[in-house]
Amino acid sequence: MTTTSPRLRALPSRLLSQAATHGDRLVSEGLARIGARKWHYAVLATLADAGPASQAEMSRRTGIYRSDMVAVLNELERDGYAHRVPDLDDHRRNVITLTTSGTARLRELDTVLAGLQRELLSPLTATQRKQLAELLTQLVDHHDSPQ
Amino acid sequence: MTTTSPRLRALPSRLLSQAATHGDRLVSEGLARIGARKWHYAVLATLADAGPASQAEMSRRTGIYRSDMVAVLNELERDGYAHRVPDLDDHRRNVITLTTSGTARLRELDTVLAGLQRELLSPLTATQRKQLAELLTQLVDHHDSPQ
DNA sequence: CTAATTTCAGTTTAACTGATATCA
DNA sequence: CTGATATCAGTTTAACTGAAATTA
Question: How confident is the model at residue A4 (pLDDT cuts 50, 70, 90)?
Fold first, then answer.
């Protein structure tokens, strides 16, 4: 983009925005090539790491809006990666579970995503990548629970 | 947001996205309180730092689309912060210039923005802030001109 | 004729809100 | 009755595309 103004170039919020836009595009395009989207990964990874849950709970765990979660699960179910099963203990809920091919799909997405992250971070050394992750985690955690 | 999955939590592209979203919101809300938007700042700062230019050139310098630049300049002109003057040497162009009150407005925005950046980076030490800016600049520059 | 400029009108996508029906 | 859930329908905003009119 070749920003000309030094003040603009150095503005942290703008640097964050630009880096994030680039990362998002890289990830979106990379996942699109295998017919996936980042929300798919978020749901599959969260199911694998934190176990089955209701849609509302999945929404809280991933940050995807309850209303958008419906569409994501429709797609994952259509493709056979996740299942909705009515919760017998609480009939308002569905229990979302990972299928066997969902687990396989997650492995695939993990591999593809690892490559995309490597591409995104290619100008940085291993130490710098670790530094960046730590700094960003601090920012994000502070925002999640200031004080 | 309390992301539960370790893989999600550690994903650099997601950390970037979340930090950027938070920063953007902070900046947008902060600027809105004084009736400004980040595009206004981008244009005023670029005019001050790199001098008058045509709209197309301003678009290249700031990264704002030529089509969106029209609306931004309409607002800046309405508020008396910038002027459009027809270029006598090239009648396709307008020359955009900063007015006196535009310069004052820029000073105001600089102050407000500095406070917002401080808020955004509040969980980081001065050294960490410098580190973060350097790492992000490396990412952004590499994307602007890979190789 | 080709290319650049300003402008307008429009698309796409993500993030978000609100409301409804069902059930605890 | 209050509150949570799944779902649907819709808004808002930023990022982006396309094309027309003018001039180099």
Answer: confident
A142 vs chain B: nearest CA distance in angstroms? 7
From chain A residues 104-133, the ones with a CB under 8 A of any chain B CB are 110, 113, 116-117, 120-124, 128-129, 131-133
Q: Which residues pair with B98 in a beta bridge?
A: B82
Helix spans in B51-125 (H): 55-62, 66-78, 100-120
What's the pLDDT score for residue A147? 67
Tokens of A14: 């703008």
What does pTM read for this prediction?
0.95
Q: How far, in Å, are A33, A44, A83 from residue A37 at the CA level?
A: 10, 11, 18
Query: Tokens 């089509």 appear where?
Result: B67
> CA dist A118 to A102, B10, B48, Å?
24, 13, 38
Footprint of strand C on the protein (CB under 7 A): A 28, 37, 65-68, 90-92; B 17, 21, 25, 54-57, 59, 66-67, 69-70, 73, 84, 92-94
Question: Whole-number mean pLDDT of chain B?
Answer: 96
The answer to whether B56 contacts chain A (CB < 8 Å) is no
> What are B63-73's pLDDT values in tens digits?
999 999 999 99
Q: Tokens 């996205």, residue?
A: B17
Residue type, B122: S
